[in-house]
Structure formats: C-alpha cells, structure tokens
C-alpha cells in the first residue's frame, strides 16, 4: 500500500486548519496553510474543493475570508479525509476484485486484504480532535507559526526599505530639478561678475598711475624753469646750435 501525495497533503492541510481554527476561531486562508506546510496554493484549491463537497470544510468570502472546519473535530477521522479526496489505502493489487493473477485470485490475496482492513480501521479510529492535542504536533505547529511570522516581518521590512529608497531617490531627483530651474541669487550674480569688475578696476588704476606720472614730470619741468630762469631747449635745437658754434681746432689761436 502506498498513500499518494494527494492523500498525505489533504490530511496535513486539514490538520493545520483544525489547529488554527481551534486556537483562533477565525477562517484560515489557503495562502497561510500553503506557507506553513509548503504546499502550492493551486494544489490546495483542488483538495479543498473536494473536501468542501464532502462536507468537511466550509468557505467564507471577504477580507477575512477563508476556510473553517464544518464538523466537530471528533467526528472527522483521517480515513474520512483520505476518502474525500478519492484516495485509497487498499494494499491489494487487484483492489479487491480478486483477479490478481490471470483473472483469478493470487496466492497472497488474503494477506493483503487483511493488511488493508487493519490500515483502514486504524485510520478510521484516529480523529482530528485526537491529533491536535498531541504534544509533539502542537510543538511543530508552534514552530511553523513562528517561522511564518518571522518571514512575514522580513518581507514587510524589505518592502518598507524598498519604498523608502524609492522615495529618497525621487526626492533627490526633485531637488536636482529645482536647483536647475531656480534663478541665480544676488550673491551668485555678484560672484559671477566679480572677475570683470576687478579687470575694470585694474585698468582704471593703470590709467590713474600713468596720469600721475605725467603730472609729476610736468611739475618737475616747471620747477627747473623757475629755478634757472631759462627754459630747457629741445634736444634737436641744442644739437643744431652746438654744431653751428663749433669751430675747427686749427683756427684756434695758439
């Protein structure tokens, strides 16, 4: 006998639902069951569709919607759950038909029939109410619950950090855009125009120095004239007069 994935997942999911329903008295979403038990939501939807048709669970819609157990837990056996999803615990190859070997009963037919009977009886006597009170099962459920909460907090923190980073980037872009559009202030204009102003001032200083130099030369010339009583002759005139009055050396008296 081999219990397939469908039967095992159905029992696991319904036991999870029973634990949550008994502790919190609220509907449980398939997404929470999927996270705790690591079962895909699409697979759970198929299983719970069968369980709902068999009257083992009920569904509610809305923001707080989900699934709840439809019967008292002591009335739902493990065999009920397995049968609800069309599973079997029959260990016989012929599935009770008695045609195991060339259309006839095989040598070990009765052996596997007895095993199948005992398995079915055992699973029929184990209910969800019995399982949820087992200490080991409750410890495992608590560990899974904490892991789910920690993962949820991490996801929320990552999402918050991502949104904060996006907001910061957008704020930086807005600041850069505003700086480009903002007109220059008086201080910035003065700083920008300062080099040309300094150049103008330097030019004026040079002109003033040149004018002062010319004035000083003119004053010196006037002072010399007043002191000696004669006006200095131009260089060309002095040179010409000197050449006119110059006599040859041989005509000079001995």
Automatic annotation (TrEMBL):
Name the InterPro entries on file. Answer: TR_Rrf2-type_CS (IPR030489), Tscrpt_reg_Rrf2 (IPR000944), WH-like_DNA-bd_sf (IPR036388), WH_DNA-bd_sf (IPR036390)
User: Annotated region Disordered: where?
Assistant: 167-254
Q: Where is the composition biased (Basic and acidic residues)?
A: 185-197
Q: Keywords of this protein's UniProt record, alphabetized?
A: DNA-binding
Indicate, by first and last residue, each region the UniProt record lists as having compositional bias (Low complexity): 167-177
- Record's compositionally biased regions (Polar residues): 217-228
What is this protein called in UniProt? BadM/Rrf2 family transcriptional regulator
